[in-house]
Design goal:
The chain is mainly α and about 50 residues long. It is built from 1 helix and no strands.
Length: about 50
């Protein structure tokens, strides 16, 4: 019983660490995409202004 609790605790700790690592990776990927879209929006607005 105690062994089962220890194994379960270790699995939950490992899952938490993996989840945090994935969250950091996805956050960085999302940030890169957001900055690219932001740059695209800026160029789009500049093009509209230059047309007028």
């Amino acid at each position: 019983m105690i062994l089962f609790v220890i194994i379960r605790y270790l699995i939950f700790r490992l899952a938490k660490v993996v989840f945090l690592c994935l969250q950091k990776k996805f956050r960085s990927i999302f940030f890169c995409l957001a900055t690219e879209k932001h740059g695209f929006l800026i160029t789009f607005v500049e093009n509209l202004m230059s047309v007028q």
